[in-house]
Amino acid sequence: xxxxxxxxxxVLKVDSTEHDYHIVAEPVEPRRSCxxxxxxxxxxxxxxxxxxxxxxxxxxxxxxxxxxxxFQCRECNRTFFxxxxxxxxxxxxxxxxxxxxxxQSLKRTFTSIAEEVGITEGTVRLIFKDFVADLEKTVRFxxxxxxGIDEIHLIKPRCVISNIQxxxxxxxxxxxxxxxxxxxxxxxxxxxxxxxxxxxxxxxxRDAVQAVIPDARIVIDxxxxxxxxxxxxxxxxxxxxEQLTPKQRRGLMHDRFVLLKRERDLNDRERLLLDGWTAxxxxxxxxxxxxxxxxxxxxxxxxxxxxxxxYEAWNKTVVPEVRDAYSDLIRAFTNWQPWILNxxxxxxxxxxxxxxxxxxxxxxRLGRGYSFEALRxxxxxxxxxxxxxxxxxxxxxxxxxxxxxxxFGVPDEAIGYGLPSGSFGKAVLTPKKEAPxxxxxxxxxxxxxxxxADISTLVRMIEAGEL
Length: 467
Ligand SMILES: [Zn+2]
Known about the structure:
Elements: E1 9-16, E2 20-27, E3 42-57, E4 60-73, E5 79-81, E6 87-88, E7 93-94, H1 95-104, H2 110-117, H3 121-138, E8 146-154, E9 156-163, E10 168-173, H4 178-186, E11 196-199, H5 203-212, E12 217-220, H6 222-240, H7 246-254, H8 256-260, H9 268-280, H10 282-300, H11 304-316, H12 320-323, H13 327-335, H14 337-342, H15 353-366, H16 372-381, E13 386-388, H17 401-405, H18 412-415, H19 421-428, H20 435-442, E14 450-454, H21 455-463
Parallel strand pairs: 2-4, 8-11, 11-12
Antiparallel strand pairs: 1-2, 3-4, 4-5, 6-7, 8-9, 9-10, 10-14, 13-14
The chain binds zinc ion.
Residues 34, 36-37, 39, 73, 75-76, 78 line the site of zinc ion.
């Protein structure tokens, strides 16, 4: 019968109430051979009704009451129930329902699915877990040659693993301790291919990378170092507050963005504001100049050696009045020097920091009612967000544009009508072009590659309400 769209079943009866369909059905072809000895010599031995949940129909929950036949084997005497086609018997659901719940669980809250289908939230969670475990096995992201390890705050601090060259997320770890990162790296296929790891100055990340992939070069991302110079300016600004009248304090609070901006990016009005504050408060002026000079180390150094001597020269200019404010930066530079300096050999940096932050911000806002595991699966496994290589070489146009303008559906002979046949062949057909052949040779062999979840696509999808 058509209501179920399950050809393996005969529908015997359909009842419908305000919220539910109750459908009685039986398998068209009983599976009557003995599962113990495979003998076909079996006889009927009673029936039993099994309730199987199915996809909602017309907004109503669906229960299928399957009249399941029992048989006895004449060879080995054992009894058994017929196996039900298209049913996940462990879950008492149709296999298509299990699949649908898995897919929906990446898009919706577990409670809303549970309510729609008429099952418990716990059951949805179990199906989600199996669905994600399956995806983990089948969806394989390319191991980044340039790996980023970042911290984000999703309910609590987590670790994001990214592909820096592709601006994609390849994994999210539940926390950022050494054990978790070691475990991830240890099980990473192709971990030997990781050349660079860009990270923040967080010891567990460094220790994990050194322990598992010692050949990868650790680079402290520029962003994490220079922002400490901004933090120093903020510290000086805050320390001034006590000397200020409430009005001045509000003014300085309002103008703090001017202090954090790069000098070259200031407009005339902002420059005037900056001059005013730094003339009246020399400490603020000193802190600002040191911040600018520190950025200058990153902009002007062509090698680790050059960066180190520029830093040492800079360090000598840190006046006692602001030394305290800059102490965190100075300490970090001392403790992390080799890895900070690696940047000047290999300027590996995350271009996606901003979009990653806005993604996580929206995720946190929309994420109420979702667990970290659900948010992680949403980010990693939303199909439309994956960045892949093409499955096939790009479609190559065999005919030049002029051909189409002449109109489709015209018989081939007719197109040449009126044209000298020589010019036709030359202008319209492009025989034996060598270029496509050589291009194709550059195509990577084997299956298409999946580089992970594209951060800007995720941001776009979440803004459009598609995530
Ligand atoms: Zn048997």
